[in-house]
Amino acid sequence: MSALNIKKGSSAKSAYDLKNPNADVNEAHTLTVTVDNEAGVLARVIGLFSGRGYNIESLTVAEINEEYHTSRITIVTTGTPQVIEQIKAQLGRIVPVHSVHDLTVEGPYIERELALFKVAGTSDKRVEALRLADIFRANVVDSTLESFVFEMTGTSEKIDAFADLMRPLGLVETARTGVAAMSRGA
Prior knowledge:
This is Acetolactate synthase small subunit. The chain is an alpha+beta fold. It is built from five helices and nine strands.
């Protein structure tokens, strides 16, 4: 049998099959970017994502140092490892960017998100909504005879789980802040 005649079910591999099987897997990454707090910087950072077709899952921005006029942008994005590396490199090239950190790969980190949920319902659905809110440690911040507004902080997964449970009970509206994240330790 010649080398070109390979039997069906043979374990022979092509050179193209030798690449990393996980290379094309999309992963979520939490990036923190410290930038100058000046007009147009956020637009430049966001423009980098939109101009290259990268998606932003979550975005939060706030000034972190009034004296030095710096802000922190926390971005949750998804992509292959190569795309994430490209995003970090391109962010680092923007002039008002001071630092770029990928918390997902740099070690343990804390993330929290704030969400408000408006749930409308009466009788048993109201009681069940209050019971679930207690389990999830959500606070009632507004109440009428027909609805509640719950406030909750936690990981995105916890907030998603709470929303999923509230939908059949009358979830009317949701507002989310996006992820705020910080590395653990010194």
